[in-house]
Amino acid sequence: MVRQIVHDPIFLAQKSDPATEADKDVIKDLVDTLVANESDCVGMAANMIGIKKSIIAVNVGMGQLIMINPVIVSKNKPFMTTEGCLSLAGAPKETKRYFEIEVEYLDRDFKPQKQKYTGWSAQIIQHEIDHCNGILI
Q1: Under 8 Å between Cβ of 100 and 72
Q2: What are 116-126's pLDDT values in tens digits?
Q3: Given 16, 48, 51, 109, which is the most exposed site by the fewest CB atoms within 10 A?
Q4: HEC string of 19-56?
Q5: For the chain, where are the alpha helices, taking DSSP H only?
Q6: Architecture of the structural domain at 9-132
Q7: Is the overall model pTM greater than 0.90, yes or no?
Q8: What's the mean per-residue pLDDT of the chain?
Q9: Which residues are catalytic?
Q10: Contact 137, 83 (CB under 8 A)
Q11: Dihedral (C-alpha) 110, 15, 11, 114: value to the nearest 10 degrees?
């Protein structure tokens, strides 16, 4: 189900709770909402649709990468960039990101994963993990 995008910075600044298998429906709603907004965004965290769970979805090619309870375990090659956010009004803001990251997470089947990401994918994942941690750009 496509959900409304949350714009309340007080809600968005709250840290998300860990997701459990009882939250599987959140994944579908998150993907549906990301697909409905793909002309304006490339990634989305569950709190952006009003659900305070640590789940993110990122557009990758022909589908979406789902990360449940993602944690960045290593990061390298910092750089400064500007980013905007579908849930936050205003001009893009400058932020620090890392060109290379390694993330531990559960996939959509709740199987543990550990993957390395670089470049644009790494940047999007960092932005969405920040959402889960209540960090706004």
Answers
A1: no
A2: 999 999 999 99
A3: 109
A4: CCHHHHHHHHHHHHHHHHCCCCCCEEEHHHHCCCECEE
A5: 9-12, 24-36, 119-132
A6: Alpha-Beta Complex (3.90)
A7: yes
A8: 96
A9: 128
A10: yes
A11: -40
